[in-house]
Amino acid sequence: MMKAKSKPWTLEELDNLKKYYPVLPWNELLQLFPGRTKSKIKNKVARLGLKRQTRFWFTKKHIDYLVKNYSTMISQDIADKFGCSLYSIYNKAYSLGLEKDKEFMANHFKGKAMDPNHGGRKYHFEKGHEPFNKGMKLDEYMSPEAIEKSKATRFQSGHKPHNTGRDGEVRWRPNCGYYYIRIKEGHWMEYHRYLWEQKNGPIPKGYNIFFKDGNRRNCTIENLECISNAELARRNTIHNYPSEVKDLFRLRSSLSKAIKKSENI
After folding, report:
1. 168 neighbors 181 (Cβ within 8 angstroms)
2. By CB neighbour count within 10 A (0-12 exposed, 13-18 middle, 19+ buried), where does 93 fall?
3. What is the spatial distance between Cα 227 and Cα 246, in angstroms, rounded to a whole number?
């Protein structure tokens, strides 16, 4: 009996393998390459000479800097400053519950979009450009054979990509570490924020939806709470101290709340 021939690796798969193999855990790698077994991936990376990245150890100084700057600083710039991989920054930010400031990111992407050298902008058609076949019928610039051959690959009316979601569909996005829900075509929203707003209304400015147990995959309304930026920073910072100091922080916070409550009576 002949051994089944393995499916060839595509260029996109090879690019993803080079990009993610050094930094992603095996469970996420296997999700990224459906149909590929662990042994097949190991064989391929061995041929490519890829190595798993040595873990980067964050010091208290690193963590303090990350907590202070992550929301309004590009992650790659932080990675370059620390001398670690971008995914080390993502993973640590995830474990600390840090998020990017939406206004900062919107301005960042707007600036990138305006850069004349960004992406394929320098290859864009100039304003006023006219295609060579403007006003021409198909058979005026294509042979009958080419026309017939093109029929098999033409998009039909109403065609949508194979990965188009449905309204209400929830997907995990490993690049940012959150579940997202499709609100309508072309509009997705972080699922934890969506859940909170469905039950409690809009999230006030300067507040964040926090996962009580620190696990973003445990996305249930019971595991969510709404906290201020200051409280988020305090919670992220407290993890860097010994247990005795953590208890003092919590005690001080409880006393402050009790005093404010008594003053309002």
Report:
1. yes
2. buried
3. 18
pLDDT digits (tens, 9 = 90+) for 164-203: 778 899 998 888 889 999 998 889 999 999 999 999 999 9
Quickly list DSSP for the chain: -PPPPPPPPPHHHHHHHHHHTTTS-HHHHHHHSTT--HHHHHHHHHHHT--PPPPPPPPHHHHHHHHHHGGGS-HHHHHHHHTS-HHHHHHHHHHHT----HHHHHHHHHHHHH-TTSTTGGGSPPTT---TTTT--HHHHS-HHHHHHHGGGPPPTT---TT---TT-EEEETTTTEEEEEEETTEEEEHHHHHHHHHH-SPPTTEEEEETTS-TT---GGGEEEEEHHHHHHHHHHTTS-HHHHHHHHHHHHHHHHHHHHHT-
Q: Which pTM was predicted?
A: 0.37
Burial pattern 221-238, b for ≥16 Cβ within 10 A else e, equals: eebbeeeeeeebbebbbe
**On the CB side of 160, how many CA atoms lie within 13 Å of its CA?**
7
Q: Is 169 within 8 Å of 181 (Cβ atoms)?
A: yes
Cα separations in angstroms, 89 against 73, 151, 157, 235: 12, 47, 44, 18
Give the separation between CA 170 and CA 179, rounded to whole angstroms: 6
- Min mean pLDDT across 132-136, 140-144, 242-246 is at 242-246
- pLDDT tens track for 71-91: 999 999 998 888 888 888 988
Nearest alpha-carbon partner for 100 in 76, 82, 84: 76
- Mean pLDDT (whole number) for 32-46: 89
The residue among 240, 241, 229, 204 whose CA lies nearest residue 71 is 229
